[in-house]
Amino acid sequence: DTEVTQTPKHLVMGMTNKKSLKCEQHMGHRAMYWYKQKAKKPPELMFVYSYEKLSINESVPSRFSPECPNSSLLNLHLHALQPEDSALYLCASSQETGLAANTGELFFGEGSRLTVL
Amino acid sequence: AQSVAQPEDQVNVAEGNPLTVKCTYSVSGNPYLFWYVQYPNRGLQFLLKYITGDNLVKGSYGFEAEFNKSQTSFHLKKPSALVSDSALYFCAVSGLVSTGFQKLVFGTGTRLLVSP
Fold first, then answer.
1. What pLDDT score does B51 carry?
2. E strands along chain A, which residues?
3. What end-to-end distance do the CA atoms of chain B give, in Å?
4. What is the pLDDT of residues B23-53, one digit of tens each?
5. Could you give phi then psi for residue A83, rounded to 5 degrees?
6. The pLDDT of residue B41
7. Residue among B34, B36, B101 minimizing CB distance to A50
8. Among A70, B15, B82, B107, which residue's CB has the most CB atoms within a 10 Å radius?
9. Averaged pLDDT of chain A
10. Which residues numbered 75-94 in B keep a CB inside 8 Å of some CB on A?
């Protein structure tokens, strides 16, 4: 299994809603990532988890709250979002972390397209 | 800081012709360079990478890339383009952040359109 599965594929929410994006991988990867991609732009790193611990937070607003319940799952909890948060949210994983991760590829899910009204 | 630049927003090529998608890099230390492809409404797929060794790197779907240290370039190439190669291509550089974890920095992307 070389897939990273993301749900839901599409999500529409109001600014007062609370929702979650989910990501799952069964490749035994130790690092998991959230990226945000706006239309016609490159993905931008949001968070990195290594061995289920938050390792990198790229100064993301607190209305985005990541969670890694176990080594296979990664969630992104959304609350009080703004319309400018509408984007494609990509989850990725890599086999290694730290120095070894520098030379390895990321495996991406197909993304969750979020629209905030 | 590590960065890559993709000077072309779009590349047009006829099916069967060779294609080149350009990428230049700016890094301190050894460059770890990647190409990813993104099809419409999909996630990114890894194509190939340069870490060390042979300057010509072969990857998925018949793509290859040439690492040129003197020109700080890592151009993506394919000898014969297919209509199905039409997609968004991202060059990326990998570097460690201060916490010791990988950060992949992407270029702005180049849209490849292959006409029949």
1. 87
2. 4-7, 10-13, 18-25, 31-37, 44-50, 53-57, 64-70, 73-79, 87-94, 107-108, 112-116
3. 41
4. 999 988 888 899 999 998 788 999 999 988 8
5. -55, -30
6. 78
7. B101
8. B107
9. 91
10. 90, 94
Low-confidence ranges of chain A (pLDDT < 70): 1-2, 98-102
* Both structure tokens of B4: 């890559």
A42 contacts B90? CB cut-off 8 A: yes
User: Is the predicted pLDDT of residue B99 greater than 70, yes or no?
Assistant: no
What separation in angstroms does the CA of B83 have from each of A76, B17, B110? 36, 11, 16
* CB–CB contact B101 A101 (8 Å): yes
Whether residue A106 and residue B44 make contact (CB cut-off 8 A), yes or no, is yes
> What's the start-to-end Cα distance of chain A, in Å?
36
